[in-house]
Design brief:
The complex is a heterodimer of chains A (about 80) and B (about 425). With about 80 residues, chain A is mostly helical. Chain A is built from four helices and no strands. Chain A has a single domain, classed as Non-ribosomal Peptide Synthetase Peptidyl Carrier Protein, Chain A, CATH 1.10.1200. In chain A, helix 1 crosses helix 2. Chain B folds into two domains: about 240 residues, Peroxisomal Thiolase, Chain A, domain 1 (3-Layer(aba) Sandwich); about 150 residues, Thiolase/Chalcone synthase (Peroxisomal Thiolase, Chain A, domain 1, 3-Layer(aba) Sandwich), CATH 3.40.47.10. Chain B is about 35% helix and about 20% strand. In chain B, helix 3 packs parallel to helix 6 and helix 7 packs across helix 13. The chains are: A mainly alpha (about 80), B alpha/beta (about 425).
């Protein structure tokens, strides 16, 4: 399973959205209906699943699905 | 001048049934909702039975995301609110929102969530605590989520008064309308703490029945062989409406709320005082509020928890309040079938009180084979429901901390 597919599965589960909605440029707040607590929870799941830590500063820069994937790649997640 | 307040909708989720109709028919046929605990591994607990909500599909009432975020007590409250609003055929428009409110009480709120999050800390450290831990655990979030779903922008509250919480909620909502702070209120109580900590903690107090091999016989209020209460979960909500508001829209009316009394024992953190003088004062306060004498009450839905102390003290208090009228009074404890839903009890029992008036049936006290002689001569409606023209009902609830709350409902007459 690719990193992209894993991330999208997690987002679908956490935010209760469809695969069709999970396009790379989808914004968590504007397109996927997430609030700040949803994003915190989603990031916690990412940390748990990918064995990384994401700081609050890094979290602030994440707005879209592509941002998450790019960020995970910089952390060396495959 | 106090305004009149009518009950125009009912919603309930109980161990005996997942709707008002199913629960009421179960109660009237004397069916117990108590069974083995399935929500957690209780093998190390002394008590292994409870009144759980069964065969309930939460996804009818919340989506998957909400289900993961909310503690069960919030889900149950939303389910009962959906049923009650639908039953009342009520929707709150923008022009009405500020005159509509919600009060839902709960004794312990989201204890299972707190328990689970503590396990997360021990397992993986504080960074693994869910951002939804606090909003899932706060007791007032049942009312909060119902207000969001139904656009209720008026008074909101959550009485946390132990086993009387649901009754306080309905009584306080009654006053909100009577005193012209609102025209419509959603009110009642909810509880969902069938979890290791609650069962263990009540066991530590020696409060729970340990009749593990006969779950359906475990809750036996006023019976000599009772050995404690049975912990249950559930929610009961009513829609309260100001008299003209209800009549102008042609609402179906179940009953009128006539009186409300609240008192404090100021005695002990858990035990009632001998003779339960706090309950005596409370029943008298509700009668005074309803401008009724004790002789007009037809039926008392007792607190009747099946604990050794409550039942004899409550019976003694009923004798004190009603005197000679006890010979014509029916008294029953529906907890014999539902178990004790703690904060949910007052809500569900008010629903049953309204149904007793609506359908002219007094539900029984089941498992009552050897009435405790210390309870004196009272007609506890043993084991079989009774047909009766019920015009007035008193509903009693008492709780830890010495809290007492009593409601009086009467048949609606325009």
């Amino acid at each position: 399973m690719t990193l992209e597919a894993k991330v999208i599965d997690l987002i679908m589960e956490q935010l209760g959205v469809t695969r069709e909605e999970c396009v790379p440029e989808a914004s968590f707040v504007d397109d996927l209906g997430a609030d700040s607590l949803d994003i915190v929870e989603l990031i916690m799941e990412m940390e748990e699943n990918f064995g990384i830590q994401i700081s609050d500063d890094e979290l602030d820069k994440i707005r879209t699905i592509q941002d998450v994937i790019d960020f995970l790649k910089t952390k060396g997640v495959k | 001048m106090k305004r009149r307040v009518l009950i125009t909708g009912l919603g309930a989720l109980t161990p005996v049934g997942n709707s008002v109709r199913e629960a009421w028919e179960g109660i009237c046929s004397g069916r117990s909702g108590i069974g083995p605990i399935t929500k957690f591994d209780c093998s190390a607990h002394e008590t292994k039975i409870a009144g759980e909500i069964k065969n309930f599909d939460p996804l009818i009432h919340v989506n998957k995301k909400e289900l993961r975020r909310y503690d069960d007590f919030i889900v149950y409250a939303l389910a009962a609110a959906d049923m009650a609003m639908q039953d009342a055929a009520l929707s709150i428009g923008a022009e009405q929102a500020e005159r509509a409110g919600v009060i839902i009480g709960s004794a312990i709120g989201g204890l299972p969530t707190l328990e689970k999050e503590k396990e997360n800390i021990l397992r993986a450290g504080p960074r693994r605590i869910s951002p939804f831990a606090i909003p899932a655990a706060l007791a007032n979030l049942a009312a909060g989520h119902v207000s969001i779903r139904y656009n209720l922008k008026g008074p909101i509250n959550c009485p946390v008064t132990a086993c009387a919480s649901g009754t306080y909620a309905i009584g306080d909502a009654f006053r909100m309308i009577a005193w012209d702070y609102a025209d419509v209120m959603v009110a009642g109580g909810v509880e969902a703490v069938v979890c290791p900590l609650a069962v263990g903690a009540f066991n530590a107090m020696r409060a729970l029945s340990k009749r593990n091999d006969e779950p359906e016989k475990a809750s036996r209020p006023f019976d000599t062989d009772r050995d404690g209460f049975v912990l249950s979960e559930g929610c009961g909500l009513v829609i309260l409406e100001e008299y003209h508001h209800a009549l102008n829209r042609g609402a179906k009316v179940y009953a009128e709320l006539a009186g409300y009394g609240i008192t404090s024992d100021a005695f002990h953190m858990a035990a009632p005082p001998p003779g339960h003088e706090g309950a005596v004062r409370c029943m008298n306060a509700a009668l005074r509020d309803a401008a009724m004498g004790p002789e007009v009450i037809d039926y008392v839905n007792a607190h009747g928890t099946s604990t050794p102390l409550n039942d004899i003290y409550e019976a003694e208090a009923i004798h004190t309040v009603f005197g000679n009228h006890v010979s014509r009074l029916l008294v029953s404890s529906t907890k014999s079938m539902t178990g004790h839903m703690l904060g949910g009890a007052g809500g569900v029992e008010t629903v049953f009180a309204a149904m007793a008036i609506e359908e002219s049936i007094v539900p029984p006290t089941i498992n009552l084979h050897k009435p405790d002689p210390a309870a004196g001569a009272l007609d506890f409606v043993p084991n079989t429901a009774r047909k009766k023209d019920v015009r007035t009902v008193m509903s009693n609830t008492f709780g830890f901390g010495g809290v007492n709350a009593v409601l009086i409902l009467k048949k609606f007459e325009p």
